[in-house]
Amino acid sequence: MPRVWTPRSILGRAGLRTVLAVVAVLAVLLPVIGTRWLGETLAAPPSVRDQEVVPAAAGPSAEHAAFADDPAVTARAAGSVLVLSYHDVAPESDGRFTISAATFAEHLAVLRAAGFTSISAQTLLAARTDPSVLPDRPVMITFDDGTGGVWRYADPLLEQYGFRGVAFVITGRVGQHYPYYLTWDELTAMRETGRWDIESHTAAGHDRHDVGEGRSWPFLINRLVQADGSLESPEQARARLAADADAAIAALELHGHGRPSLFAFPFSASLTPSNDPAVALAGRQILADRYELLFTNDSARRWATAADLASGFVPRVGADTDTAQELFDTIVTGLPAPTPADVDPLDPAGWTDDDGAPPSTAPDAPLAVGPDGVVLRARDESGTTAWLHRDRTADWRDYTVTGDWTVQRGGYSALLLREGSAGALRISVGRSSMKISTADGAELATARFPDAATHRVSATLTGTELRVEVDGRPLPRVTVPEPGPVGGGIGLRVGAAPSETTVRGLQVSPP
Hints:
It is a single chain. The protein has 511 residues and is α/β, with parallel strands linked by helices. It has 12 helices and 27 strands. The strands form 5 sheets. Strands 1, 4, 5, 6, 7, 10, 11 and 12 form an 8-stranded parallel sheet that branches. Strands 14, 15, 17, 22, 23, 24, 25 and 27 form an 8-stranded antiparallel sheet that branches.
């Protein structure tokens, strides 16, 4: 007669008693001491949860309606997209990554009143080559992580206000820790509404890990400490990153969402902090090879411009903690700068100094701007720098800057060009000399001219050529670095105190 294997025959009597004892203890203790997180993980999730509809927010204000009808806004926004970033939506805010459903409704009410139209991933991708596909005030509303509140609370509000959304999903956590994360059935239900694009936020890379020296840094841009205590080799790190990217793509395809085209960096960490910058760059390239656009939250809180779309890296405005008014203020201040043909460099509203402060009329203010010109004063030994429409000039590449520079004896004043781009330049103007250099200090050219307190300077950028005139005398043309896909605007700088400079008649125009 064949032997029948039983649990007792496999484990032995003592082993079986141990297993049964553990099961009995767990059966008693789990309902009592199990954490909420663990209990939710063990709960069997329904395939699709019920949604909850939040009442509509208050109607539009005159300020929002004026923004919607302003042709100047339409001109400045042309070719650009406001990309908003959220995480979870719930009845109450947690003050950091969860916005209350009522506040989210207020955000949507502001967007609708201000004339925004939400766009899909397909439209954003098409805009890279044909900006005319964009509406006048385009917005992309994105949600990171794939949390349950996106289906339960955000989706009904998007439907109510006529908007659509993009869900960046951590594929390895779908259906885990219920009800925190979405289920695959809920993601399918979202896609089938026609309001959602389901995109990638890694498979298992949304964590911070041990990278050595007591540091815990992001998965995607670091070499990790392994189980034996050694640090990954660069080759091992690249293989891990490629495997994670491929796993996320495969999971979305397997569940019917198609191949994702968009990727959002966890923690918005695309290059730093990293224990190996070369691995961080390699990781970013691995993602760029698999996705058409990569997203990060931008501390400048600005719209994404045509230059950003061309570069493949899209800035977002994190809005989880904003009130409706704060969101609207960010929409206004984050608008792209006027073009070089339209900008007014003597408008004080366009300038900020290196502390982020606007111009002041105080007698010793570091920055003063008025009809007569721009005055810059060094506040200490580090000097002072000021920018025109800082972080809003990504589409500025070729332009001319002209003005009358007055410099103190022994001091200097620098004109900053293509600020924020890979081809940023410095033109340092003294009483009798000038130096042209890159932003990192590499000297490109020098010139001398008769000593005088004031010089009229004109600088014209066209591609990789810089033409400079001083007091009407042209200097030899200078070959300058290519700015890359993202351009940049202008700034001014003075050296250590008590240095001061005045630039009168400052003008910016097409080349």
